[in-house]
Amino acid sequence: MTVFSGKELVLMIINTLLFLLFLLHHASSRSLNRITPSQPLRDGDVLLSDTATFALGFFTLSNTSRNRYVGIWYNKVSIQSVVWVANRDNPLNDTSGVLSINTHRNVVVSLSNTRTTGLNPVWSSNGSFSSSSSITNTFAKLLDTGNLVLIEEDGGIQRILWQSFDYPCDTMMPFMKLGIDRKTGLNRFLTSWKSSDDPGFGNVTYRINPTGYPQLYMYRNGNPIWRVGSWTGKRWSGVPDMTPNFIFTVAFVNNATEVTVMYGVNDPSVFTRMVLENSGQVRRTTWQTQEHRWFEIWKGPKEDCDNFRRCGSNSNCNPYNPQTFECVCLPGFEPKNPREWYLRDGSAGCLRKKNVSTCRSGEGFVKLTRVKVPDTSKARVDLSLSMKACREKCLGDCSCASYTTANESSFTGCMTWHADMEDIRTYSSVGQDLYVRVDAVELAKYRKKPFGSLGMKGMISLLVVSILLVLFLVMSFIYCLIKNKKQARKHSKNLFNYSFENSLSMDDFSSGKNLDLPLFDLIDIAAATENFSDANKLGHGGFGSVYKGLLSNGMEIAVKRLSKYSGQGIEEFKNEVVLIAKLQHRNLVRILGCCIHGEEKMLIYEYLPNKSLDFFIFDRESKLQLNWRKRFDIICGIARGILYLHQDSRLRIIHRDLKASNVLLDSELKPKIADFGMARIFGGDQIEINTKRVVGTYGYMSPEYAMEGLFSVKSDVYSFGVLLLEIVTSKKNSGHYEEITSTLVGHIWDLWREDRAVEIVDPSLLVDDDACPNEILKCIQIGLLCVQDYAADRPTMSTVVSMLGNDSSLPSPKQPAFIFKRNKPGDKSNPSTSEGFNSVNGMSTTMVEAR
Ligand SMILES: *[C@@H]1O[C@H](CO)[C@@H](O)[C@H](O)[C@H]1NC(C)=O
Ligand SMILES: *[C@@H]1O[C@H](CO)[C@@H](O)[C@H](O)[C@H]1NC(C)=O
Ligand SMILES: *[C@@H]1O[C@H](CO)[C@@H](O)[C@H](O)[C@H]1NC(C)=O
Ligand SMILES: *[C@@H]1O[C@H](CO)[C@@H](O)[C@H](O)[C@H]1NC(C)=O
Ligand SMILES: *[C@@H]1O[C@H](CO)[C@@H](O)[C@H](O)[C@H]1NC(C)=O
Ligand SMILES: *[C@@H]1O[C@H](CO)[C@@H](O)[C@H](O)[C@H]1NC(C)=O
Ligand SMILES: *[C@@H]1O[C@H](CO)[C@@H](O)[C@H](O)[C@H]1NC(C)=O
């Protein structure tokens, strides 16, 4: 028999009561599908959308804060991903909050006790809707787009009284409109959170400004920091890489009722969102179900030139400008204050040159290509005019300073500027043409054919000028020679003591302000590499040998001693290295400097402790260090690095020699691409000769490159595809794949068509717990899309990155190129693939374009 003491009995009763209370509390937390005046949502309840994609309820944001918010989040995403918050600046202290519909037909958040006492709610949807129908016909529902709507039902007709999409927070969702309803004056825009754990109103907004020709801007504390630009018919003028792809659609409307933009998504199972951060960045990400993470596919602003009015008025920000800074006055303009111009990096802007009187005969236009057109808030727009009529209209109006087309897709519409032109910049590949009005003198400077329009007199004066010019050039050349010799002597003395610490910080490069590149002295490098000893040799690549070195300050470096190199002079070599050193990305090997000594030229890189990717994936033992998760990260990293080279960097660079041995792994096994920009240093012909020598590279070369010498970004895409397939299979594409008497690519293609592609996957990848065969197969499909025979069929790197980053269905690959099947280098005969090469016509044959 057990006897309880009174104390124990009381404790037991209390415990039982507490347990009952606990049960009661949990029984009371419900999933609703609508909120009605009689059925409010209490803290602990959730309101689900029809397919439970989104949920609305009370939540906290961090373990340290007890603040309770009401908001909407992705219900099927494993990371807390809040897309909308009601009481942004008014969190609740405890769990007594209630979301209900009040007698004024508003959705309100209030404390349960104040609801009855009639105190002001913590948050209210703030409409005041009078209606004849009874309040009981009003309800709130969460749609599958993540939109909370308040609906009034009257005789079977539903009317939306209020919706959360009209009051966005920091997240723009598909099918949400941003912009202005011209009838009601409602302006929907994004406002950043204060910080990642405080959803209060932050300092940064992203909104459409309807002044003049409407534009999208990013503001901080009300001041524009980035002009996303006007709608060109295809994209925002300030977002060059916004190409419609298979994931998104964009609808821009500018009419009497509204000026809005809306993104759509073709596949509703793709979760994509655009988030405005308080740091002043807007980021688009997609959810990767298998990876459990948000994957970044685009962000802005990116470059110094994106800063609003970086170069002041009438000036063009050109990141590819070989001068010391990016700003260049528009044709016919000069720095406002020449001294200030240099002191303040050109940010003071430009004025029309003196002694230029407009409205004289002989005026014309200079075309600036690939630019972001000036701020259109003061532009005059006539959408009915053709380009030709636009030009005439501008020429006939003395106040007209420049013109361009308003619609990039139809090349119609006339946009003209009549005052200072603001916030212009140059892009590498896309962008619009801007025609700047100049007088006859200026026009002559820009004429391509100087003889075309000149008379006899002009010809003679031109001749005289030319002779004078030649004389001047010869003189300066001689002068330079003498000076250079002197300087070279001086240099070799000064540079002797050069050490890495006292050079500029490497981060200065990314700001584009400092063009100096550390020059290392041969003595130091020789000491660091123990006189280029064999023991220190890391390998021999296409462009020379690589040595490991240890500087006297303890820093480890990799030294690439370039093989005998002809062509460019020292200055050109330095310029190229400076440009390439500016390419900084976490997936590119960083260049620290160079060393020039007579014929000897060396590039100094950061040293990476791990070997290159080929060492890992093609080795029976080492490959076990890379499970599928690591390999997928490596694939994504390589893709991002190439995308940066192709699109995001200041120079448009085609790598041309992408292969497993050119991908290095850092201590965390993150990939870093090496040997980029070699085409720039060596010049086009040299690299071609070079790749012909390196037989191993053959497996990576696209058919149009190998056979016709045509390269484009799509040849890199091809090489990437081969590399991807190698990573998945741990097998080399090049060389002899004898078992199957076909190339790896060909073999994968055969298996793919028979739905047996999984057989080629490295078996060690499939045994891992983390492995997901679907994702591996998706990668094989992307690989096959990249190695398609016709360059035009292959995706761009930005599409590849998007494809890697989401789960939507992919197009079916077409037959890949098999030209390397038993082909010897230099053997160009292969009738089966020589036809159809027209598809690569019109593709650039230059591997590097200055942007
Ligand atoms: C919550 O606390 C855990 C452990 O204390 C910590 O690891 C985690 O990062 C915290 N989460 C947030 C959002 O602060
Ligand atoms: C939070 O708690 C404090 C004191 O505990 C109280 O004064 C304040 O009104 C509460 N705020 C809200 C929003 O309930
Ligand atoms: C609702 O209106 C009140 C008073 O006009 C204002 O203080 C409050 O910020 C508004 N709330 C919302 C969510 O707009
Ligand atoms: C917003 O800007 C103000 C004024 O510049 C600054 O004091 C404040 O710290 C900023 N707030 C946030 C959340 O960045
Ligand atoms: C631009 O032109 C295209 C094709 O004519 C048309 O569909 C589009 O609506 C135009 N856009 C604007 C902003 O005028
Ligand atoms: C403006 O465009 C919207 C969306 O296409 C349309 O619903 C509306 O009727 C248009 N308004 C006018 C005045 O054309
Ligand atoms: C402007 O023209 C005047 C007279 O025509 C001349 O004296 C002066 O030097 C010119 N200035 C410049 C900057 O060309």
Structure description:
This protein is of the alpha+beta class and 851 residues long. It has 5 domains: 1-167, Bulb-type lectin domain (Agglutinin, subunit A, Orthogonal Prism), CATH 2.90.10.10; 169-302, Agglutinin, subunit A; 305-460, Hepatocyte Growth Factor (3-Layer(bba) Sandwich); 493-606, Phosphorylase Kinase, domain 1 (2-Layer Sandwich), CATH 3.30.200.20; 613-850, Orthogonal Bundle (Transferase(Phosphotransferase), domain 1), CATH 1.10.510.10. Helix content is 26%, strand content 27%. The strands form 11 sheets. Strands 26-25-33-29-34-31-32-30 form an 8-stranded mixed beta sheet. A 5-stranded mixed beta sheet has the order 1-3-4-5-6, with no helix packed on it. Strands 35-36-37-39-38 form a 5-stranded antiparallel beta sheet, sandwiched between helices. A hairpin with a 5-residue loop joins strand 7 (97-101) and strand 8 (107-111). Helix 11 packs antiparallel against helix 15 and helix 15 packs antiparallel against helix 18 (773-786). It is globular. Mean pLDDT is 79; it is low at 449-455, 486-515, 684-696, 735-741 and 819-851. Bound molecules: 2-acetamido-2-deoxy-beta-D-glucopyranose (7 copies). One 2-acetamido-2-deoxy-beta-D-glucopyranose (NAG) binds next to strand 9. One 2-acetamido-2-deoxy-beta-D-glucopyranose is lined by residues 253, 255-258.
Lay out the secondary structure.
Elements (H helix, E strand, L loop, with lengths): L5 H22 L3 E2 L8 E2 L3 E3 L5 E6 L9 E6 L7 E4 L11 E5 L5 E5 H6 L5 E2 L13 E5 L5 E7 L2 E7 L7 E2 L4 E5 L5 E2 L1 E6 L2 E12 L5 E6 L2 E8 L17 E7 L3 E8 L6 E6 L3 E8 L4 E8 L14 E3 L9 E3 L3 E3 L2 H6 L6 E3 L11 E9 L7 E7 H10 L5 E6 L4 E6 L6 E3 L5 E7 L1 H7 L9 H39 L12 H4 L11 H7 L8 E5 L2 E7 L5 E7 L7 H12 L9 E7 L2 E7 L6 H5 L10 H21 L2 E3 L9 E3 L5 E3 L4 H5 L1 H10 L9 H6 L4 H17 L14 H10 L9 H4 L6 H14 L10 H9 L25 H4 L13 E3 L1
Parallel strand pairs: 1-3, 25-33
Antiparallel strand pairs: 2-7, 3-4, 4-5, 5-6, 7-8, 8-9, 10-11, 11-12, 13-22, 14-15, 14-21, 16-17, 17-18, 18-19, 20-21, 22-23, 23-24, 25-26, 27-28, 29-33, 29-34, 30-32, 31-32, 31-34, 35-36, 36-37, 37-39, 38-39, 40-43, 41-42
The site of one 2-acetamido-2-deoxy-beta-D-glucopyranose has 5 residues, from loops.
